[in-house]
Design goal:
Layout (H helix, E strand, L loop, with lengths): L10 E4 L9 E3 L5 H8 L5 E9 L6 E12 L4 E7 L7 H14 L3 E8 L4 E7 L3 E4 L2 E12 L6 E9 L23 E3 L5 H11 L3 H17 L4 H15 L10 H23 L1 H4 L3 H15 L7 H13 L2 H17 L1
Parallel strand pairs: 1-2
Antiparallel strand pairs: 1-6, 3-4, 4-5, 6-7, 7-9, 8-9, 9-10, 10-11
Helix pairs in contact: 5-6, 6-8, 8-10, 9-10
């Protein structure tokens, strides 16, 4: 299925409509450990020895360089990984999330697995704040992990903007360079994994401060008025960097298509900007969100069907190319303020 939720997966949502009609919806607020148990995904990951068998079946040898990660409760293969791979158990991830709740007001929004339990996540919601008239920002911490060897343990501070549902990581400019720091914490499954997770807890102890700093920056962007030429320049610089040069005088059909595509994107961008003037005004904040809205929602996403396209878009917005484009646009908007 496109949503990748199998009969061996589960999703828990707090006061939300079920995803694709699946999952369990709870009204009460649960702690991460309570949510893990309620969701029924408190399974462990065992590591099985790998062997190789000769074509005639007479000879069997061990393969010491790799092991098989196995879901313990149902004995479902997760994936072949290096012998140095250190699994982070689901309960350890939940305990990590519990510790985050001690340093800031966060609550479980969603918990779940996909692909037979190979991928697991917890989304923790913080306290929302307003940056303009009716422009509400909801901060989240997305904690995700993989058991198949393809994903690291990852903590991503992110936000959701109620006005147009676009996502901005809560990156804070460094004082010395003015460049955005990478908000995500990525821990690979090698070496002293649990020690690094403990370090991540300490790093995220400043989560509440980061939220306040992000609110200050967003509010500052709201107060900076931009002219139409500023908006046009911002789009041109961003689009050229993220997608391609825009042929002003097309010489062939290919260039004409590129120009038409860029013009369509520009019309979508300016329409968002104008539609949200009554909320965020003719501001740098509105300009930024008009562009990130274009990137995250208006640009086409490939996929076999609507479900797959939605999922690829969400993944790109949080972890992939769209996330990088969003961060770059944030940096450009800060340059306008400077």
């Amino acid at each position: 299925m496109a949503h990748e939720i199998t009969q061996n997966d589960q999703v828990l949502l707090h006061q939300k409509a079920a995803w694709h009609g699946l999952g369990m919806v709870v009204q009460e607020e649960l702690t991460p450990l309570e949510a893990l148990e309620a969701c029924g995904i408190d399974y462990g990951i065992d590591q099985w020895t790998l062997t190789a068998t000769s074509p005639d079946g007479k000879s069997i040898i061990e393969v010491p360089s790799h092991v098989y990660n196995m879901r313990a409760d149902k004995e479902i293969p997760m994936g072949v990984v290096s012998a140095n791979y250190v699994p982070v158990q689901n309960r350890q991830m939940a305990e990590f999330c519990e510790a985050l709740g001690e340093v800031g007001k966060v609550k479980v929004e969603t918990v779940g697995t996909i692909r037979q339990g190979k991928k697991v996540w917890m989304c923790l919601k913080g306290e929302e704040f307003n940056v303009a008239n009716g422009d509400t920002i909801f901060p989240f911490l997305l904690v995700s992990n993989g058991h198949d060897g393809s994903s690291s343990f990852r903590v991503t501070p992110t936000t959701w903007r109620a006005v147009c549902s676009n996502t901005l990581h809560m990156s804070i400019p460094r004082e010395d360079t003015g460049q955005l720091a990478d908000a995500a914490i990525v821990i690979r499954h090698f070496g002293k994994v649990m020690e690094r997770i403990e370090e991540a807890k300490m790093a995220l102890a400043q989560y509440a401060d980061r939220r306040e700093r992000f609110a200050e920056i967003a509010t500052k962007l709201v107060k900076v008025e931009v002219k139409r030429e500023d908006v046009q320049r911002f789009f041109l610089e961003s689009y050229t960097e993220d997608f391609s040069e825009i042929p002003m005088n097309p010489q062939n059909l290919k260039e004409e298509r590129r120009r038409n595509k860029a013009m369509s994107a520009y019309n979508s961008f300016t329409r968002r900007f104008d539609d949200e003037r009554n909320i965020a005004g003719a501001s740098a904040w509105n300009m930024l969100n008009a562009y990130t809205g274009l990137v995250q929602h208006d640009q086409k996403t490939r996929g076999a069907d609507d479900d797959q396209r939605v999922e690829r878009r969400v993944e790109s917005n949080l972890f992939g190319l769209n996330q990088a484009r969003t961060q770059a646009a944030f940096q450009r908007a800060l340059a306008v303020v400077a």
